[in-house]
Amino acid sequence: MHRYMDVTDVFGWAILSLHGYSMWVFCINPKNNKKAYEMARFVVIDDSSFQRRVVCKVVKSEGHILHEGQNGLEGLYRIATYWPDCVLVDLVMPKVDGFGVLEAMQKNNIKIPVVVITADVQDTTKQQCRELGAYAFINKPINETEVVDTIRKVLAETAGN
Hints:
Layout: E1 3-6, E2 12-18, E3 21-27, E4 35-39, E5 41-45, H1 49-61, E6 65-69, H2 72-82, E7 86-90, H3 98-107, E8 114-118, H4 123-131, E9 134-139, H5 144-158
Parallel strand pairs: 5-6, 5-7, 7-8, 8-9
Antiparallel strand pairs: 1-4, 2-3
Helix pairs in contact: 1-5, 2-3
């Protein structure tokens, strides 16, 4: 679920309540009817520390919360622990690959949108991912603008689900 707070008359610290938890946020965009604080929770799963770092930098630059997994098994643990708004996953990884992550989520009826990040551009691979519930695809090498556009689209289309 996409979380946000509309700020019209607030400047400074405010309390934002999320699912029974409260947190202090600093509102820096008063009196203009824009979203001053926008936050979603992401799990980024990739065995390449370089690729993970690039994706995390982009997601953080959008003001979102991140949890990382170095392989599919660790990623599934992060998904179960933090219940993110979106998962970004590589396909080729040790222990449990991206297909395994998608299969586990499907079998457990976890309806979190998954963006597959892969160098494999074959239609058969994309079709298999779609059948397992993948929401979108980003091709490697990663283009930061494409990552931003994709996560914004996913969050906008799945807000309130």
